[in-house]
Amino acid sequence: MHEVSIAGAIIDAVLDAAKKNNAEKVSEVFIEVGELTALYPDQLRFIFETITAGTVAEGAKYDIKVIKPMIKCKCSYNGPVESFEKLHFFMPTIKCPKCGETDVEITAGRECCVKRIKIS
Ligand SMILES: [Zn+2]
């Protein structure tokens, strides 16, 4: 499953950072997830809680920030995408709100990364 492998990679990064810092416990994890990844914070939290059982990150809190999609278009538009169908399609159609172009460069909204962790 897509979500589980991404969540697994995130937790690997968290545990790796915890180990490098000789952490006994990870208390909080700050994560940024782009809206276009089709990952939902509640679902991620659930997976994190499941896979961190028995690790130093067990019981950590997850602060998940959803990043809105941003695009850059040939017509010089550079900014957020107002509306797109996110729930019904795995890959939503991204269109320039100014000229309707679909061949646009996505500059934000596809990230999925750990910003920082709080350890003790
Ligand atoms: Zn445009």
UniProtKB/TrEMBL annotation:
This is Hydrogenase maturation factor HypA. Involved in the maturation of [NiFe] hydrogenases. Required for nickel insertion into the metal center of the hydrogenase. Ni(2+) binds at H2. Belongs to the HypA/HybF family. GO terms for biological process: protein maturation. The keyword Lipoprotein does not apply. InterPro entries: HypA/HybF. Keywords: Metal-binding, Nickel, Zinc. PANTHER family: HYDROGENASE MATURATION FACTOR HYPA. GO terms for molecular function: nickel cation binding; zinc ion binding. Zn(2+) binds at C73, C75, C96, C99.
